[in-house]
Design goal:
This protein has 7 helices and 8 strands. The protein is of the alpha/beta class. It starts with a helix and ends with a strand.
Length: 193
């Protein structure tokens, strides 16, 4: 098994035998690995047709749907874990969606590009323009990211909605960041419940 570094961290957080819902599953790589190696079950949700086709080719149960419509079709505590990898920043009603995650599953793993990363701050401060980076590869005019946030912002949103942060990790490239994560980390990982 050879997962991308960010998917490997998520994979490591999910207990064997879990019922998993992977929202924005792309090509189904993570869910396929969980089913094969950890005997998990579940579904992926993906809006892009090529992602749906790739997921099906991997043997992943996938639903083609727009996440903006919310999670109403899923009952309370239907899943053990929901994965929302690098997608929350593109949701229109982030707060409502975050509450929905914790209704549908016991735990959620949420990852997002950290706008507080030093490289992003520097591009704004010195360059006077919106940052473009490995984790945020779009320009301001074509980005799907409509809600940019930092680690502190996400933690405050969780606290406001009585959602507990169970675990946090931060990466830059393929390395974990231990010190000054809001400044030195480009990608944030949260396990909440």
């Amino acid at each position: 098994m050879n997962l991308r570094d960010d998917l490997q961290l998520i994979y490591d957080w999910i207990p064997a035998g879990s019922r998993v819902l992977d929202l924005g599953c792309a090509d189904g790589e993570l869910l396929a690995a969980l089913v094969e190696h950890k005997q998990c079950s579940g579904y992926g949700v993906e809006i892009k047709t090529d992602g749906v086709i790739a997921s099906i080719a991997r043997g992943v149960n996938v639903i083609q749907a727009n996440l903006e419509r919310g999670l109403q079709e899923f009952g309370d505590n239907t899943f053990d874990v929901i994965v929302l990898s690098q997608t929350i920043q593109s949701m229109r009603d982030t707060e409502l969606f975050l509450r929905g995650l914790t209704r549908v599953a016991k735990q959620a793993i949420v990852t997002f590009p950290n706008f507080g990363y030093w490289h992003n701050r520097l591009q704004i401060a010195l360059g006077g323009k919106m940052p473009v980076s490995e984790r945020m590869p779009y320009h301001w005019y074509n980005t799907p990211n409509i809600h940019l946030c930092t680690l502190k912002d996400f933690e405050l949103l969780c606290a406001k909605n009585n959602i507990r942060v169970l675990e946090r990790a931060v990466m830059t490239g393929n390395k974990r960041v231990e010190h000054f994560p809001n400044l030195l980390g480009s990608l944030a990982f949260y396990r909440v419940g």
